[in-house]
Every structure is written in C-alpha cells, then in structure tokens.
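Q: A reviewer asked whether we had any structural model of the full assembly, not just the individual parts. We don't, so I'm hoping you can provide one. Inputs are below.
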Amino acid sequence: MSVREVLGEEPEVAMAEERYRVIGEILSKVFRGARPLTLSDLLDEAFLNRYLGIPIFLTLWWALFRFTFDVSAPLSDLIDIIFSRLGEFASSIIGNEWWSAFVSDAICGGLGGVLVFIPPIFFLFFGLALLEDSGYLARAAFVVDKILRPFGLQGRSFIPLLLGFGCNIPGVMATRTIPSERDRILTICVNPLITCSARLPVYVLIAGAVLGAYASMAVFTMYLLSIVLALLMALIFKALIPYFRRGRRAPFILELPNYARPTLRSTLTHMYERGILFLRKAGTIIFLGIIVVWLLSSHPWGAPLDQSYIATLGRWLEPLFRPLGFDWRGAVALFFGFIAKEIVVGTFAVFFGLGEEAEIEEVQRSIVELGVFTPLTGFAFMAFTLLYIPCLATVGIIYRETNSIKWTLFTVIYGLILAYLIALLIVVIGGLMGLG
Amino acid sequence: MKEIEVALIGNPNVGKSLIFNNLTGGRAHVGNWPGKTVEKKEGRCIHKGVTMRIIDLPGVYSLTAASIDELIARNYIVEERPDVVVDIVDASNLERNLYLTLQLLELEANLVIALNKSDIAEGLGYEIDVKGLSELLGVPVVPTIATVKVGMEELKDAIVEASKRGVKARVRYREDIEELIERIGNILKRDENLTKKYPARWLAIKIIEGDKEVMRLIEERGLMGELREVIG
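A: Here is a predicted structure for the entire assembly that you could use as a starting point for your response.
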C-alpha cells in the first residue's frame, strides 16, 4: 500500500482530517458542552452585518483619528513650549556662540520640532492597540475585504495598510500574515503611499502656514489622496505587471477571535512597542539628519542662510523642482526628507528658527513672510511629501521583506515619479483655474 | 544552577504574550530570528532553583511549511530541541487548538499544555476533564487564566517537572497510516545522521503530506529513490 492508495490524491488534506478525527475522539471522552450564543456572536451580527459593517467601520475609524489628533494636541503644545524655553535657556547660558547656536537651533529647534509629534503617534498606536486587543481589527479586515478585492488586494492587506497610517515600517512588516507571495508584494509596494504619521507634521506645518481656513480640509485631502492612490496603484500594478496576475487567488480565511476587554497593560505594551520605533528613529537617524542640515545651513559660519552650503545644494536641485514651484528651500527639505519625513519639518525649523525660538507658529510665519510657498505650491508640496518614499528605514524594511532589490527599487522609483506627476498636475490644473 | 530552555507556542489570540509576560515579569530581550524579520522575544524565569530561558515562538495554527511564522516555529523546535515546549491552548476553542498540539506531539516535543482561558470556557458552560485530557495525550495539562495570573505557579512546576523526564507522549493514527509511517521510518533510519537530527516519525508524516521543506531535505540526502515506491 502506498501513500496514494491509502490517502488518495491529497494526502495533506487526508492527514488533516485524520488529526481532526483523533481530536474528535479525545474530545468525546473529556469534553462536554455545546457552544452557546455568546455576546461575541451578537456583536458580530452588527459589526459584520452586510449593510451596517462598513458604516460602523468608518465611524470607529473617524473616532480613532479624532482621538489621535485632538486629545494629544495639548501634550504636543507642552513639548513645543518646553523645547523652545530650553533653547532660550541654553543660548543664554552657553558663552560660545557656535555651541549656543548648535544647542538652541539644531537640538532644541530641529529635534524639538520633531519630538512634538510623540503624543499623536503614541495616541494613534494606543487607539490601534485598543481596536486590536478588543478583537475589532480582525472584523474590520473582514469587512473591508469586499472593498479591497476589486483592487487586487484582500482583507489581509488591510491591517498592513492601516498600520501604515501610524508608520510604514510596522505596516510593511505586518504583510507577513499574507500567505500569498503576490498579494504580499503588492501590499508592500503600495504601503508607502499610505500617509504615515511622520508626514502629518509636514501637512500641518505647510497647510497651517499658507492655506489658512482650508488647512484642515487640505490635510484631510492628503489622507483621502493617500487611500485613493494606494488602491489605484494596486489596481494599475495588477493590470500592468504580469507577476501579480499569475496564480489562483487564495480564499480569504481569517480567524475572528472572541471580543475581549483590552487590558490597560497589554494596550500600553502594544503602544510602547510600536511607538518606540519612532523614538529610536528620532534619536538616531533623524537627529543626525537634522545636525547635518544645521551644519550645512549655518556654515560658512556667520554667512546668511542664502549663502550657506545648503543653499548651494538647494540651488543645484532647484531646476528639477522649478516646474512644481518649489524654491531651493523646498528642494532641500525634500532632499533631506528622503532620510526621514520628520526632517522636512526639522529642516524648515532650522532654516527659520535660526537665532530665535523655533515654535511651530514662528516657522509658519517665516514661510509666509519669505514667500516660500503659495497656497497652490504648498498644497503640491504636501502631495509630493505624501507620495515619495517615506524614509530610508522604510526602504530598508521593504528590501528585507521582499528580499529583492528589484521590488525595492521599483517602489522607490514609482513613488518619486508619481509624486512628481501629481504635484505637477496640482500646480498646472490649479494654475489654469487661476489659483496660486 | 540548572538552566533549561522553554519555548512558548500556541495559536494566535490564546494569550501567549500574557503568559510570556507573567512568566518573565515582562522583561524581555527583543531581537529577530536569524535572517528573518520576525520578532523573537526571549525572557528569563527562575523557579525553585531552576533558571528557565523562555522563548516566545510566533503564534501559529499549524506547523506546515506554508508561512514564515510556521517555519520559524517548527525549525526552532526541531533544530534547537528546547527542554520543554509549552503549548498554550484556548480552552474555549479546544478542537481547533488541539490541531497544533497533535503536530507538536508528532515533532516529539516535550510538551506541557497550558489550558488557558479556563474562565471563558467555564462561562460558556464547557466541562473539560483535565486529568482525562492529560492521560489521553500523555502530557501534563495545567488550567490557567493568564489575564489574572491564575495557574502560573502550577505551570512553572509542571515545566520544571517535565524537564526532568523525557517525552513519553505518542498519539496514534489510523492503523493503515501508522503502517505507512513505520515503512517510511524504516527507510529513513538507514540514514543515521538524518534521524539523529530529526524525529523519524515526524519526517515520515511530513513525507506523507508532501511537505515542501522535508521533501527538499530528503532529495538532498538522496533518499528519494527508495521512498518513491512508498509514496506512489
């Protein structure tokens, strides 16, 4: 008797059945009870309802974002104030002019400008952990599966994309739960388009500076654009790249854990584990990036900003960005933003914080006074920031997860092209409409 | 002082992280599995003079070669041979959870079962004969409620106890399947180096299932020719 004769054409399935038979035998001896209708079942009747599922999902999502940004705002203000006071204090006690500028402008101004985003980021992760630990996130994946299918993505792509709103790194890493390699790569490729929390500071800074009453609408538009383009690009890649079309679509099977009351400790642990990534990034690569920006912008020592090394670099990059209406300062900020998006804000903070306290309002005022952006080019700058590769660390993680230079380069390059095209489109169409 | 290696495994959402935190006091060294980006958590627990090095394996439903997480978990158990493997089982969802347990028994892991969420199972009106389950599987079973740290001392006791004795559990499958397992096992045993490293019974089951990784291994060892007849 061979395997085929005993177990048929699909021995793996037959073995699984045999294991369940043995389990059934064991349970018949040691287990008594029938599954009653639980609260979980009742909740699922509502959360997974054909008509209610999606509205409930959208409501919870909206609540999460309000929680993230509104509740954390006072804490951000506090950090802002602390750093600017610290900067003033440092420059008042340090005698050496260079060191005093270094501490107050580079460290307190630049890094402080980045660290004010600790509260929203931690709050976002706290909210996500709540949804996850309560068991809702798995339901959400189930609900949106239907929406994602037509775009070549699936329910399992949802959590990676959702995490991308916090940070693309855990987002890309979370694709590991997608068993199909093709679906996984596709989800990784579009993940950088999801606007991570590091890009939010850029939107807030620019929109607040030049878009006035339309600021919050512009920020919201970025989130919308992010989702629409992620889905659209998935659709386009699926249509144009044969790799994504090969093979059968795996059915979507997802375990729905029982709903549970999240414990404070595990929610805090989840928040901490993800949030710490941001802090680590802030302490290393962002900090270094900001120091480099400060060194280049304050040297030759004593020269005004527009004669500094960084201005030279900016002027060299400027022609590339001129069609988009960005001047050398915008060009340099995007250039360093490649390391990490937080540096874009840090760069502006260093530029305009030179010699004074770098509160966000101060930087925004300078952007307006110096005419760095018009409302239209500011909006285009936000879109560009949204679409080009989020940060060096994300590129690294894409490489590690796809294990392919080809897919990594693909993601970086299409992001740059898309960013340029969309920004150009905004400037051209806006120009034709007489905006600007 | 004696040091033993203890691996934690279980389906996703069974409370594995909580048990890990309860055992280690939340202090963990977080790294990555070699060459992989899957997170590896390691902690320590000292109990009755025994130091346990506790390794948190990825949450998995089974031990096939289908996903990175499952491969990591099973390779760890096969290759590192931890002294004790704690299989965390959701008491409110026994049938599905025991599927992983059976696969761990196939791997001849030195199992201790933590029957977690006992409170939820009780709330659902389930009655589980813990002693009977332990006898049928041939491994110790400890009821726990990780959320309120119930059963943790008993679990530690069972781990230390299990580390002193060997593996004695063996679940038997249908007669004709057992025959296949034995025939394949006999062929594999000719390659001593192979069966010294991997349990022959487990390899045999994986060969029956046509497991990608094991098939590759068999190919490498040049055993494919002899096995072809049995596989059919």
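A: Points you may want to mention in the reply: The mean pLDDT of chain A is 83. Chain A has two domains: 1-31, 53-245+269-432.
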